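Demo today. Your pick:
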Amino acid sequence: MLKSRLKEPVHFIGIGGSGMSGLAEMAVHLGISVQGTDIKSSTIIDRLVTKGVRFYLGHSGQSLDGAGTVVYSSAIAADNPELTLAHSKAIEVLHRSDFLQLLMSESLPITVAGTHGKSTTSAMIAHVLDDLGCKPKAVIGAEMIRYDSYLLLGDGNIFVAEADESDGSFLKYRPYVGVITNVELDHLDFFKNQGALLQAFGSYLQNITEDGFAIIGWDHPLTRDVGSTYLRDRLTYGFVLGCDVRARDYISVSGSSTFTVIVERDVFKCSLPMMGKHNVQNALCALAVTRSLGLNVKDAAASLANFRGVKRRMDRLLSTDRLKIYDDYAHNPGKISACIQALRQTWPQIKLHVVYQPHRFTRLETMYDEMLQSLDGADLVYVLPVYSAGETTQLDFSPAKIAADLRLRMDIDAVACDTLDEAVTTVQRQISDKAIVLTIGAGDVWRVAAKLKENLA
């Protein structure tokens, strides 16, 4: 039993974070005593307290008294007072990925890895399995709109979770079904080069249990490179010929998608209340997972017609004849391009305004040209200061520099905005006719979208 393998209470450092709060609540659901700390309170923490979690404000270390196990994430600095004290007192310390593996160890794990699409795909899988009566557990990296939560607490034997590749921690999991949505160059601050990245994803596949399945997105060249070396049971999905679960006849109209699905000899229609080929690929992945579990794929496709999405993933804040406002968490080139192309394909004649908040200096240092190229398709880009996430750089990545490079190197109209408020006023000044506004980035750029909705609705 899980409780016998953990010393309680389990203490979470940074319990209010999206990744940590879900694990904490799941632990409570499984009967584990939980406590935790953070630098400020929040509605998420208030929710945990109502579930019986003891919360301590700040990271002084005094709250560690009596803790049996300490859980931390990669966001916690090595010199964090609580982490340092836990080591000095010989308290068992687990990275969140180790703790997640423990939670999944008594279930049938389905893990979703990939450079982008993890949250939406994981949520789709959980949604479908729930509708098919599997009563899954799930820990998702974004809030599922249908459930108003980051997690599902079903009493079935399936456990769906994201597998984060950014710090290599996805190699700690032993999934029954291991998904790779796609592989693109990213996190080069950790992997250093393409070879190391591909090797890590290959190792992830090898960690799938011998009786399990690999589910691999086949539209992406690097993903095919990784997947082609996997010689055990696998299912591929995508638009390209030869996939085990394939889409064709894709149409996007007014923010929704329809397409034909081909699974072996079965051919059937599927609809999705989301735009973009990338979301169709995510849906195909959910169908492939369903197929690997021996469930009815047509029933799964019918379920997807009611999928409501996750927050900050092509989140529609406003939709009128004159103005549409979307917000997305996208922060690497593949994600950014997918969002822009989805909007461009759905409304090709309407001017597209993109408010872009770059994320992390290391990403710009290693992928600057790709970042510029990913904004192709925007009619006007408003560049905000980099959301650094605590990083520093010696290079010039000012809004003025990035905007100038977009104009000179990509022939994309771009303006620099030094604050969120300046972005709001500049966008409002530029909108004169029908328009689409997309705010994009992993930081606080969503505040621009929210303010525009407030001012223009």
